[in-house]
Here is the input.
Amino acid sequence: MIYLDYQATTPLAPEAREAMLRWLGGPGSDTFGNPHSPHRMGRMAAAAVEHAREQVAALFPPGGRVIFTSGATEAINLAIKGTARASQAIAVSAIEHAAVLDCAHALREPTETVILPVDDQGLVDPHCTIPASVGLVAVMQVNNEIGTIQPVEQLADAAHRAGALFLCDAVQGAGKLAPPAKADLIAVSAHKLYGPKGVGALWVRDGVTLLPHMDGGGQEQGLRSGTLSPALCAGFGAAAALAVARRDEDATHVEALSARARNLFADWTLNGSADQRWHGNLNIRRDGLDVARLMSDCRSVMFSAGSACASGSGRTSHVLAALGLSGAQAKCSIRLGFGRYTTAHDIEQAAQAIHAAAEAQQ
Here is the structure.
């Protein structure tokens, strides 16, 4: 099978798997301790967690702290609910992930949600005005469906001028792009950068105060109660360290794959900006295409009809709709995602299968 769905999840890096194995200890080992226990085994596990925390911190700007979570969704919920004030609105881009949009809309009244529109390239206006009523602005670094890279530094400046904090969902950009240096809160997920599923992190700039939204034992600096998994943290840390070390190498590899893929799909229409994008994401459309049939006919190629989180919902992509695409155009779109472990041969074989299946529909 050919895997081209890197925005949904990435393969676990061998280095991350190796780092996890020690902390999956069973009977007779000394590595299954609770990292919150005071005895020797607990302290060993806690040391592994703190080492991983330092590795993950390298994904972020200096001057902040890392809070481990179960993933980016929890990190985003902690950021939004932890900073929400009843008298203040929250501003989000029209193409945010459901984790941001749904959390923002779920805040109890009288909190207002202000939607920042995007243009037909999928970009938020960097010179947009943030209303004075807004206390938090949330704009993602790289869109998960179309790959557009948002002007997050300028948008953070705009938020700060309005007296608001700036939250960046950096799930698709972490370890691939420079971190959003002016953000106040940054959410990431391990499994989108070759780490394990089930662990993520929220980075909080020094001086930013958060309120916990889950009660319990007070772990993770009193903000995220629950026993941490040393194995998941260790895998996340190893994946983060590898991503930082290989960032330029990985980017060069992805650029080459992107050039090849764009050439092979030259007669398809690109959704989103051709320049302001992460090139490991190719969202394209072909008029009249039955994507459900295409996916059924290309069972050896793993790709997406849109955001993996929304697949099967039957809803038109809110991201493609925000670009101005009609429902029919959105439903003719596919997303190909590739990364570190993808080969040019994978791209060529996938293109051959997709083209053959598409032509069979004519």
About this structure: The longest strand covers residues 64-69. The longest helix spans residues 230-264.
